[in-house]
Amino acid sequence: MGLTIGVDIGGTKIAAGVVDEEGNILSTFKVPTPTTPEAIVDAIASAVEGARAGHEIVGVGIGAAGYVNRQRSTVYFAPNIDWRNEPLKEKVEARTGLPVVVENDANAAAWGEYRFGAGKGHRNVICITLGTGLGGGIIIGNKLRRGHFGVAAEFGHIRMVPDGLLCGCGSQGCWEQYASGRALVRYAKQRANATPERAEVLLALGDGTPDGIEGKHISMAARQGCPVAVDSYRELARWAGAGLADLASLFDPSAFIVGGGLSDEGDLVLDPIRKSYKRWLVGGNWRPVADVIAAQLGNKAGMVGAADLAREPDPIM
C-alpha cells in the first residue's frame, strides 16, 4: 500500500516516523510537546510535515494515551492532555491533507510487536507494558481487539485488591499499583526503611536515604545481589504473574509479550514473572502454558504499530 507515518505523543516530544510495509523506520522528525491541547494538534501536524518531506505518504497513524473511540477518530479522554471528546482525526487531516487514524498508544505498541516484533508467528497474544504504569493490548485471531466502545485492554486498572491502594484513576486496588515502575520503587523504599542493613548497596547508589531511591538504583543493586532490591523485583513479579494468570483464563493466548521500561531488565524481571505466572495459573501442571517473552521493538513499537494501523481498513474488533 505504500509508506505511512506513525506518530508517538510523548511527555516531552512528539515523534513522527516514515515506516514501510516491513516495519522499517525510514526517517523521523521530532518536535517539543507543547502544553496546550490545540498547540499539541499543531505540533503533531508539524511533525508529520517534517517527516513526510521527500516521501509519498498514504496515511498517518497517531498513538495517543487515553480512551479512543471505536471509529479511530476521537479521543474520549486523555490523562495527561486536556482532551475531552477531541476530534483528533478531523483536525490533523485538515492540517495535513492526509488520511489519519487515531489509536490508543498501548494498542499501537501491541500491534507493532505482533506484526514486526516478538509476536511474529503468533495469532493470539496479549501484550503488557510495564513502565511507570501498566498498559497493554489484545490480539486474538490476528485482530486487535478493542471492545464495543474501543476502550478495552486497560489492564492497569483491573482491580486486583478490593479496597486496596488508591490509584491515580480514582479507584482502589488497581493492578498498576502493584505491578509497575512506581510500585517497584515503593517496594524498595518500604523495605529499605524497615531493614536498612539489607539495603546497603541500594542506599549507597542514591543519596543514602530510602527517599532517594530511584528505579535505576534498584536495577543496579539487584544485579549486585542486594537483598532488598532482589526482593522488590520478586514482589513486583508476584503481582505481575498473578495478573497474567487471570488474563490467561480470559484469553488463552499462545504468548504474553512484556514491554515497557521494566522489560529492558530482561530475565532479572521476566524470570520471576514466569515463575509467579505458572504458580497462579489454574491447572498449570495439566495444561499448555503460554510463553512469557520480552518485547523486541523497544520504544519504536508505538510508532511502527501506529503507522501500520494506518494501512489497515479496519483490523480492529
From TrEMBL:
Family matches, as CDD domains: ASKHA_NBD_ROK_SgGLK-like (cd24061)
PANTHER family, A to Z: GLUCOKINASE, ROK (REPRESSOR, ORF, KINASE) FAMILY
Subunit composition and interactions: Homooligomer (possibly a homotetramer). Alternatively, it may form a heterotetramer of two glucokinase subunits with two ORF2 (AC P40182) proteins.
Location relative to the cell: Cytoplasm
Catalysed reactions, as listed in the record: D-glucose + ATP = D-glucose 6-phosphate + ADP + H(+)
Gene3D superfamilies noted in UniProt: 3.30.420.40
Major site of localization recorded for this protein: cytoplasm
Protein name in the entry: Glucokinase
InterPro entries for the chain: ATPase_NBD, ROK, ROK_cs, ROK_glcA
Enzyme nomenclature, EC number: 2.7.1.2
GO molecular function terms listed in the Swiss-Prot or TrEMBL record: ATP binding; glucokinase activity
Family named by the database record: Belongs to the ROK (NagC/XylR) family.
Any one annotated GO CC term: cytoplasm
GO terms for biological process, alphabetical: glycolytic process
Source species taxonomy: Bacteria, Bacillati, Actinomycetota, Actinomycetes, Kitasatosporales
Keyword Repressor: yes
Keyword Nucleotide-binding: yes
Matching Pfam families: ROK
Keyword list, A-Z: ATP-binding, Cytoplasm, Glycolysis, Kinase, Nucleotide-binding, Repressor, Transferase
